[in-house]
């Protein structure tokens, strides 16, 4: 059973006057411990990045960069073709921009978490993951990589000694292979169902798949999405349920000494 867990959320995922989701980021910020801030390619712009980092700093929430494919129209959820080096240069560009806003507001870059289709591509692409981790070892050796446990990204981070955090997806379904099942329209999920799912994962280390099977799951951070309909009620009920079970919520910077959070594990 997990005694402490991080809650992370993708934030700043709008652009100019365009807004996504039905919940204001400021309302979510007080209920999470880590923020994945969109860095301008799949969503986000300089003003929104600045605003989101400032909100995180005011709430004591740790800041991470959330780089994606250069795909504003598709919200970074479509695969973009390119060489691994080209794609990592896009990541470097975005992480650098977000890190400057973090510096402006006196906070550090706790982590980097690729977004959407780029996250999923890294999960199965060893070359891309290795180049990404090599960049992290050079530019942000003390920042965590957020990824799925057992993915190519996870393996590359472990092998290189890069701090790494495994995620559990609260508002997404799982397949029998442990991978996330993405749908274009997830509708409005039931917050109570998600809360029970999260508590079970923390207490039993299991999750029910779309085919009705139970699989083992290991993680240090719980992710939900700000663009999921009803995001505020999802995180409120999830947080309340965790606390009721005696599970403390804290950023991953406080979990660094736990099992399976650094390269010497496994």
From TrEMBL:
Pfam families the UniProt entry points to: LamB_YcsF
Superkingdom of source: Bacteria
One GO term (biological process): carbohydrate metabolic process
Record SUPFAM superfamilies: Glycoside hydrolase/deacetylase (SSF88713)
InterPro entries for the chain: Glyco_hydro/deAcase_b/a-brl, LamB/YcsF/PxpA-like
Protein name listed in UniProt: Lactam utilization protein LamB
Native species: Metarhizobium album
């Amino acid at each position: 059973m997990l005694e402490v867990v991080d809650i992370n959320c993708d934030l700043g995922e709008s652009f100019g006057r365009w807004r996504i989701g039905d919940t204001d980021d400021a309302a979510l910020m007080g209920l999470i411990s880590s923020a994945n801030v969109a860095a301008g390619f799949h969503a986000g712009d300089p003003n929104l990045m600045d605003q989101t980092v400032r909100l995180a700093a005011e709430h004591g929430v740790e800041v991470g960069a959330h780089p994606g494919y250069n795909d504003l129209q598709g919200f970074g959820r479509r695969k973009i073709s390119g060489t691994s080096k080209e794609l990592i240069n896009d990541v470097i560009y975005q992480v650098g921009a977000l890190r400057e806003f973090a510096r402006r507001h006196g906070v550090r870059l706790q982590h980097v978490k690729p977004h959407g289709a780029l996250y999923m591509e890294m999960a199965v692409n060893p070359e891309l993951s290795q180049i990404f981790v090599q960049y992290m070892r050079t530019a942000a050796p003390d920042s965590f990589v957020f990824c799925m446990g057992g993915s190519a990204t996870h393996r590359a981070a472990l092998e290189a000694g890069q701090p790494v955090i495994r995620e559990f997806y609260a508002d997404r379904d799982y397949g029998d292979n442990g991978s996330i099942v993405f749908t274009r329209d997830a509708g409005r999920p039931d917050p109570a169902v998600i809360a029970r799912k999260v508590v079970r994962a923390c207490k039993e280390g299991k999750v029910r798949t779309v085919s009705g099977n139970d699989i083992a799951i290991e993680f240090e951070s719980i992710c939900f999405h700000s663009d999921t309909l009803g995001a505020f009620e999802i995180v409120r009920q999830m947080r309340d349920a965790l606390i009721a079970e005696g599970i403390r919520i804290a950023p991953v910077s406080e979990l660094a000494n736990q099992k399976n959070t650094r390269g010497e594990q496994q």
